[in-house]
Specification:
Blueprint (H helix, E strand, L loop, with lengths): L6 H6 L3 E5 L2 E6 L4 H10 L2 E4 L6 E4 L3 H8 L11 E8 L5 E11 L2 E5 L5 H11 L5 E4 L4 E7 L3 H7 L11 E6 L2 E6 L8 E7 H15 L5 E3 L1 H11 L14 H4 L15 H10 L4 E7 L10 E3 L5 E11 L4 E8 L8 E6 L2 E8 L10
Parallel strand pairs: 3-13
Antiparallel strand pairs: 1-2, 3-9, 4-7, 4-8, 5-6, 6-7, 9-12, 10-11, 11-12, 14-17, 14-19, 15-16, 15-18, 16-17, 18-19
């Protein structure tokens, strides 16, 4: 199992490690998941997300090539901006969801999910015309996410750019190391993701913890990352979205360029959108004691199965159980349902995520 460049640093900080996306990653540190979650919501937290992929696509009009493959429409953004997008298969399922950095007509950068990085790279390589180069920098660069209402203060203390808008990025240098600072994240809070070469990431991580100490910074693991993203209703690939789940079903159709003439899976998605999906994503808010988890049956008052949870957790912010699920199109917002939690019925209410108000912008 590969290790991120910060692996020994995490061990020294007392991190509990575990496998995720094929990498050995920190699950939580000594403070625990709830404390880390709270730090991000109230102050600032720092995550190592170096397991995420890093692709650089270059060549004559690389922009048009990428736009012909990915679902979202790059015409919606300008150079210097980032965009949430998806790579779909021919049946409309989501091979991966990813962030696209538009540098210019001849350079596009993509951040795919960890376990899907090689799959996305292979798909782009297979579709690329002559003159387009797919540079896979997965093992050469790391990513640090600095998230929370005080995240800008931390970056300013290090002389890094912070004034660019949401879903925008700037290239910069720190201590002689080239890096990219993007106003993105997976927590619902104001935050940044910093892409930097492996040679500079340990120094940057330690510097962030040092300058952030007076602001209440905590190193955060994947446990807090999961509770934070679930509160926002952000999908996790492999659970809430997958090659068997389409953007129409997952309600991520806002990230599809429906007017584009060409992108992978277009015909299937257009047909599903017109016919109506057989299942739709919803949020489920527990109204009783209990914590829903993924892959649990959801039933109506008559005892009929109307769907399944895809993610579930305890919300540290709300202090109750929450879940995401794929449910029958007959289900409506406000419906009272139950989740089968290991043979016990947990009452839940159907809601539209997010469960907690976003502060990203």
């Amino acid at each position: 199992m590969p290790e991120v460049p910060l692996h020994e640093t995490h061990i020294a900080l007392g991190a509990k490690m575990g496998p995720f996306g094929g990498w050995d990653m920190p699950i939580e540190y000594a403070a625990g998941t709830v404390a880390e979650h709270t730090a991000v919501r109230t102050a600032v937290g720092i995550f190592d997300v170096s397991h995420m992929g890093k692709l650089r696509i270059t060549g004559d009009d690389a922009y048009s090539f990428v736009n012909s493959v990915l679902a979202n429409d790059l015409d919606r953004i300008a150079p210097g901006q980032a965009q949430y997008s998806m790579l779909c298969n021919e049946t409309g399922g989501i091979i991966d969801d990813l962030i696209v950095y538009l540098v210019g007509r001849d350079e596009v950068r993509i951040i795919p999910n960890a376990s899907n990085a090689s799959t996305v790279a292979a798909a782009l390589e297979a579709a690329a015309p002559a003159g387009i180069t797919i540079d896979n920098r997965h093992l050469e660069q790391g990513i640090i996410a600095v998230q929370g209402p005080k995240s800008a203060e931390v970056l300013k203390a290090l002389g890094l750019p912070t004034e660019h808008g949401y879903m925008a990025f700037e290239d910069a240098t720190w201590n002689g190391h080239s890096l990219t600072v993007c106003r993105t994240g997976y927590t619902g809070e104001h935050g940044y993701e910093i892409v930097i070469g492996n040679e500079g990431i340990i120094g940057l991580w330690n510097a962030i913890l040092e300058v952030g100490q007076p602001l209440g910074v905590l190193p955060c693991g994947l446990g807090a990352r999961d509770t934070l993203r679930t509160e926002m209703g952000y999908p996790l690939h492999g659970q809430d979205i997958s090659p068997e789940i389409s953007p129409v079903q997952a309600r991520t159709g806002w990230a599809v360029g429906w007017k584009k003439e060409k992108f992978a899976g277009r015909d299937a998605l257009v047909a599903e959108k017109e016919a109506g999906a057989a299942r739709l994503a919803w949020g489920l808010l527990a109204t009783g004691r209990g914590i829903p988890r993924g892959h649990m049956q959801v039933k109506n008052s008559a005892g009929d199965v109307v769907g399944e949870t895809t993610s579930g957790t305890f919300s540290p912010t709300l202090q109750i159980g929450i879940a995401l699920g794929l449910l029958s199109p007959a289900v409506s917002e406000g419906d009272e349902l139950v989740v089968d939690v290991r043979g016990r019925e947990l009452p839940v209410k159907v809601v539209k995520p997010p469960f907690v108000q976003a502060s990203t912008k």
